[in-house]
Design a protein that fits this description.
The chain is mainly alpha-helical. The mean pLDDT is 88. It has one domain (2-127). The chain has helices at 2-11, 16-27, 30-42, 59-65, 71-83, 85-93, 98-101, 105-127. It has 8 helices and no strands.
């Protein structure tokens, strides 16, 4: 996970809080995290016969369907397919049209606010 964290903080210049939120998703999906770490090193996807597949999609297939996504985006989308398959399939069915990305945002907003508040409180306690 250290490699992913360094990539988020150093290469993508993500704030610590954002990086920790993103990292939580990968902690829940260690197989996808491991493949992302290899992508970070090589900027290449693994062969299809060894790649992680979720709902019959690999990160490389997602990257072909959504060329605007980088490696992080494609692996993040695999997590969406795994954890929220109905949302992921809807996004795929609509060819990644912007309006489908908005699907589920209202439900996620309160959960994300809670996570941010928890992280902020944890950081405040750690500094005290």
């Amino acid at each position: 996970m250290e490699k992913i964290l360094d990539y988020l903080l150093k290469d993508l210049s993500q704030p610590n809080l954002v990086a920790s939120i993103i990292l939580e998703k990968f902690k829940r999906n260690p197989d996808i995290a491991e493949e992302l770490e290899k992508w970070i090193e090589t900027k290449k996807f693994p062969p299809a016969n060894t790649a992680v597949s979720v709902e019959s999609y690999t990160a490389e297939e997602i990257s072909r369907l959504a060329p605007f996504m980088d490696g992080l985006g494609t692996y993040n989308f695999l997590i969406t397919l795994r954890e929220r398959p109905e949302v992921g399939k809807q996004i795929l069915a609509n060819n990644f049209a912007h309006r489908t990305v908005v699907t589920g945002i209202k439900e996620k907003t309160s959960a994300l606010k809670s996570i941010i508040e928890e992280r902020t409180n944890e950081l405040s306690k750690a500094r005290a």
